[in-house]
Amino acid sequence: MSDRSDAPTSVIRLADYRPPAWSVEHVALEFDLGIDRTEVAATLELVRQADEPIRLNGEGLELLSLGVDGRTLAEGEYILADGVLEIAIDAERCTVNTRVAVHPAENTAFEGLYLSGSRDRGFLLTQCEAEGFRHITFFPDRPDVLSRYTVTLRADHDRFPVLLAGGNPDGEGVLADGRHWARFVDPHPKPSYLFAVVAGRLERISHDYTTADGRAVALHIWAEADVIDRCDYAMDSLIRSMQWDERTYGRNYDLDVFHVVATHDFNMGAMENKGLNIFNAKYLLADPDSSTDDEYRHVEAVVAHEYFHNWSGNRVTCRDWFQLSLKEGLTVFREQSFSADMNSAPLKRIEDVALLRRAQFPEDAGPLSHPVRPSQYSEINNFYTATVYEKGSELVRMLAGHLGQEGFRKGMDRYFERHDGQAATIEDFLTALGDANGTDLSPYLAWYGQAGTPRLSAEGRFDAAQRRYRLTLRQRTPATAGQTAKQALPIPVRLSLFDQSGKALPLRLEGEAAAGATERTVVLDSAERGFVFEDVDASPVPSLLRGFSAPVILECDYVPGELAILLRHDPDGFNRWEAGQQLAGLAYDDCRDGNVEGSALRAWTEALTHLFNDKGVDDALLAELLTPPGEIELVERQAERDPDRIRIARQAMLRKLAQRIGAEALRARYAGLRSETTAALDAPSQARRQLKRRVLDLYALIQPGEARELARAQYEQAPGMTDRLAALTTLATLDAHAAEAAIAHFRQRYDGNALALDKWFAMQALLPGADALARVQALEDDQAFMLKNPNRVQSLLGSFARANPTGFHRADGAAYRWLADRLVAVDSLNPQVAARVATAFNGWKRLEPVRREAAHAVVAELASRKDLSRDLTDILARVAL
Ligand code: ARG
Ligand code: ZN
């Protein structure tokens, strides 16, 4: 690797932004492709924009020749240092020619041009976002340089029968010596991070699509021969995404061909390269035998996400990387809306809010916290975070809520119209949305610049004499890393008031003539504000932040009975779940404090038992309701963080729930859900599988012996992966030893199926308790384990370190030391992956003292090393602070 941290680490600041000194009108690239060595010739048409030399980024490139306007430059006529090629010239325009060599097979960082799979059978591909293009050729590698691309690929025909680049095909042919060529022209100016090529032996499935505005588009999904039959669901999802974007936003696809490629070697989820999306196979391949229902939904969502980027990201791109959420937050929001439309909206909202709480809230509360639009970075790859993506989406959701559906559509039309073909900023986005609606959205800008999760507290006071209910809302954002002063933000609070029988009241705010709807949104735009509701006959139960109308933590001292009313009666599935989560939090507190007769615990188990027996509750919603916040979220309810005690308390509350529902009822429900013999993907079948799993796990808490027999039978008879993996997990969680035969069976059954094996590794890495480390270490010896494959590293190391709190946070610190050692090894191959796994250390400071000391020693040791990548060094430096 080239970027070790002994090279000077510079901090890039938003405040220092300057427009490019030279633009690139056109770039012609010619690739002579080879696995060990690829040569890239580039012709750049440059136009001066400022009185400065030409500066081109280039890293790890072997410069073979350099010319300007047809004349070869001699050494001394340019400067090449610290990854920048500088050429001083007088002209207003010029043509720069470079020829470089790169070495794909040696590129284990998977940034730039690299080899996926084995030398003899794998294929070549590129990943350029954020700054990978500079690993391919010399170029002003920044998103505000938009250029038209002509790309010619040349390669041996037998080894590389398929040659792909973004844009429209523009000819192909045969060359001497068994070689061939293909050319692509992209008519849409684009930033370098959207450039892509793919070359190798790939199969495809195709579909002819006609856009709403009449363009015939050839859709192709490419994958290696052994998995090409698992691409149909992705194609189906792609078609639905295209139709949805036409219908919902009036956005049509804009090239004659659209390629999607699957690779098993990818650092991230997927990449929206113009006309040539590249996917981690995990988010593209799906078949019932190797994919779970959740994975089908992920494929649908990620296919949509990358497709939607064609407008939110590609046609309108980002001015600089600080604006990353401009495309990512917006695209996640679009993707979430699509999934909500395709499936169940309340369930989708539950999934998204649960993810925000599990991934983004902890990030925002620890040393890695940063605003949705950071103000500085030293390694941009470390900012593809839950904050930029998930919180960024919540901010767009608030804006959309503020404008209403029609207003938001008008605003989006204005944004796309005004900024088409440009590199825009978050201000541009807010201004376009506001202008189209004659409103000023700039107060929301504060959300983009302020890190930390705001605490929203609510206090209600009922005045019987005046028949009034006064709701006082307050906000406060705790200090975060490097940002101590916080300001008040506009917080939209959607609310309803329920009477004690669970009926929603029509709402009339003080000063209004007549009562209106039973739900409305008030905005808290200062530290504190009171809202007075008139004509209230009895003390109501407020339902606040409905639909999770703002990404905040609600602090409201509900008594358990009030939450139980909401949990039983709220007509909205999401709000019902949310009331259940709040109540579960209180029930957890009871268990944690050893208060097994606590009123919250009783209210929670009673309300859920009632819902369990209510045949009107949807299976999938019931499964969600039966799932309290996870061990990672519950950390927030602890002063001293001891993962073992959190797990014990959480298991205790679940056992109470199982007892209250009763073994008989659980067994009967399981039997009723059992009958399935196919792995049909319709929503009711998926819902049944999900509920079945929850019911079996609850049953296992009180009848482990019988549950084991049921799980064993379910494993053997499972028609698809969802049931099979669930049963295996239940068996292994009950007793990993006793599950050995089933674990071995799965391993053998799926030998050679990388994505199924990833789940096999992850399932075991997630088994709780102090034995987990030994189990993970044993798995490292499995033939199929390899540090050079990011999915494998994530499935074993990542799952263990980031999602198995009792396993990773062993009191003796052994898992910390083990991870540190592995991080160094991964880092020498793939810095981006190492940095991501290292975020597992994010919360160490708030652990109880024994674990904190152990973690501190390891983090400090690692952070002091000088031989690590910039990616990993940046994470460690911030975590260690
Ligand atoms: N833009 C991609 C997406 O759709 C993510 C690419 C991230 N790449 C990286 N090197 N950090 O979300
Ligand atoms: Zn994205």
UniProtKB/TrEMBL annotation:
<dbReference type="Pfam" id="PF01433">
    <property type="entry name" value="Peptidase_M1"/>
</dbReference>
<dbReference type="InterPro" id="IPR045357">
    <property type="entry name" value="Aminopeptidase_N-like_N"/>
</dbReference>
<comment type="similarity">
    <text>Belongs to the peptidase M1 family.</text>
</comment>
<keyword id="KW-0862">Zinc</keyword>
<dbReference type="InterPro" id="IPR037144">
    <property type="entry name" value="Peptidase_M1_pepN_C_sf"/>
</dbReference>
<dbReference type="InterPro" id="IPR014782">
    <property type="entry name" value="Peptidase_M1_dom"/>
</dbReference>
<dbReference type="InterPro" id="IPR038438">
    <property type="entry name" value="PepN_Ig-like_sf"/>
</dbReference>
<dbReference type="InterPro" id="IPR024601">
    <property type="entry name" value="Peptidase_M1_pepN_C"/>
</dbReference>
<dbReference type="InterPro" id="IPR042097">
    <property type="entry name" value="Aminopeptidase_N-like_N_sf"/>
</dbReference>
<dbReference type="Pfam" id="PF11940">
    <property type="entry name" value="DUF3458"/>
</dbReference>
<keyword id="KW-0482">Metalloprotease</keyword>
<dbReference type="InterPro" id="IPR035414">
    <property type="entry name" value="Peptidase_M1_pepN_Ig-like"/>
</dbReference>
<dbReference type="Pfam" id="PF17900">
    <property type="entry name" value="Peptidase_M1_N"/>
</dbReference>
<keyword id="KW-0378">Hydrolase</keyword>
<dbReference type="InterPro" id="IPR027268">
    <property type="entry name" value="Peptidase_M4/M1_CTD_sf"/>
</dbReference>
<feature type="domain" description="Peptidase M1 alanyl aminopeptidase Ig-like fold">
    <location>
        <begin position="452"/>
        <end position="556"/>
    </location>
</feature>
<feature type="domain" description="Aminopeptidase N-like N-terminal">
    <location>
        <begin position="112"/>
        <end position="194"/>
    </location>
</feature>
<feature type="domain" description="Peptidase M1 alanyl aminopeptidase C-terminal">
    <location>
        <begin position="562"/>
        <end position="878"/>
    </location>
</feature>
<keyword id="KW-0031">Aminopeptidase</keyword>
<keyword id="KW-0645">Protease</keyword>
<keyword id="KW-0479">Metal-binding</keyword>
<dbReference type="GO" id="GO:0016285">
    <property type="term" value="F:alanyl aminopeptidase activity"/>
</dbReference>
<feature type="domain" description="Peptidase M1 membrane alanine aminopeptidase">
    <location>
        <begin position="233"/>
        <end position="442"/>
    </location>
</feature>
<dbReference type="Pfam" id="PF17432">
    <property type="entry name" value="DUF3458_C"/>
</dbReference>
<dbReference type="InterPro" id="IPR012779">
    <property type="entry name" value="Peptidase_M1_pepN"/>
</dbReference>
<protein>
    <recommendedName>
        <fullName>Aminopeptidase N</fullName>
        <ecNumber>3.4.11.2</ecNumber>
    </recommendedName>
</protein>
<dbReference type="InterPro" id="IPR001930">
    <property type="entry name" value="Peptidase_M1"/>
</dbReference>
